[in-house]
Amino acid sequence: xxxxxxxxxxxxxxxxxxxxxSTSVFRSIGTGGTGGVYYPLGGALASxxxxxxxxxxxxxxxxxxxxxxxxxxxxxxxDLGFTLxxxxxxxxxxxxxxxxxxxxxxxxxxxxxxxxHILVASGSGITGVEDFAGRxxxxxxxxxxxxxxxxxILAAHGLTYDDVSAQYLSxxxxxxxxxxxxxxxxxxxxxVPAAAVLEASTAGGVELLPLEGAGRExxxxxxxxxxxxxxxxxxxxxxxxxVPTVAMNNWIVGRADLDERVVVAxxxxxxxxxxxxxxxxxxxxxxxxSGLASAPIPIHPAARAFAGGG
Length: 310
Fold this sequence. Notes:
This protein has 310 residues and is an alpha/beta fold. The protein has helices at 3-22, 38-52, 66-74, 85-93, 145-156, 171-180, 195-203, 213-222, 260-272, 274-280, 301-306; strands at residues 25-30, 56-61, 80-84, 105-121, 136-138, 165-167, 185-190, 206-209, 227-231, 243-255. α2 (38-52) packs across α9.
């Protein structure tokens, strides 16, 4: 083949490659730590979105969870973020970490519900959250949605961080500390069954307390994104009867200007491949798209249209 022809062919190939790269949009999904539900579920969604969206390449990022994800979505650093309702609501209404209200934040899709678990060391003498005063209490990782939840639960029982020795521990760290006697109580907001709670209850020395009464009513009245919840009987070793508590949904958020094709592709995956996602993590089996009707903040226009809201 003549040299000129070879050169011309090479230029065409280079142009084609360059054109292919320019049409690919790199998109990221903020999840959580590798030991939770967010990360494996986010990874499964990223791979499916990459296959469904010919113009996009998606990756799941390890993050600090809800608050970080919401802040980074608002800042345009990531496209989608997993979050608890509390973080989305507080960001939209009043802003997180001193920021302005995030009025362009939108719900893109519903996830599964989180159930609040109140764990205490056996023999601690603690019978309710009001007994946490002066005790070592795990409130979740600093800046997480669980920490926000813990602060609100304490407040509903007339307590603040000044009244307890707050410990910023992950779920697995909380379980280990309770088992080892280094912690008196822990507040966890997580799906059922939770691996850390299973580990702690199987090893023994840990009890699940009910969250009910005046404290729960105060919490429900103050924060509209909570609902009454229960930990089912038999969910964990030693749990013979259902344990009353509160629940809060998890959501996927994005900005109002997020490409509608991304939103539709995501919702179609959640609708059509829920069983496949449940093989990655069984919490996916609890995802119900009808949950969009109870979103804590405005939903993305494409999600509203998908749900039949026009």
